[in-house]
Design brief:
single chain, about 100 residues
């Protein structure tokens, strides 16, 4: 029973990370259009959700030739964490199936 709960919790966490990665993709693509209206509430909310995470990596990797490559590291770390979460999820689910099977 607890393995199923753990699997469900990690499943929700995995989906949340997937949605966040989509938001990051949208944020990075929007950075290619600097003339967008920054006062748009949708953009303001998107920036407030994604910029704190991206700013961590901007502090580590400076812009090279005016190009911000820090999102690459941000995506790599997010992908690693998402893979780890999925591994834990499916390991706990597999152990539950072996227990009942």
């Amino acid at each position: 029973m607890s393995s199923q709960i753990i699997s469900t919790v990690f499943g929700v966490l995995s989906q949340t990370l997937l949605i966040y990665s989509y938001l990051l993709i949208i944020r990075v693509l929007l950075s290619w259009f600097p003339n967008l209206d920054q006062s748009n509430p949708i953009l303001t909310n998107l920036y407030s959700i994604t910029d704190p995470y991206l700013n961590v990596f901007r502090g580590i990797i400076p812009a090279i030739g005016g190009i911000d490559i820090s999102p690459i590291l941000a995506f790599l770390l997010l992908n690693f964490v998402q893979s780890l979460v999925n591994y834990i999820r499916f390991t706990s689910l597999n152990s539950a199936l072996q227990f009942y099977g």
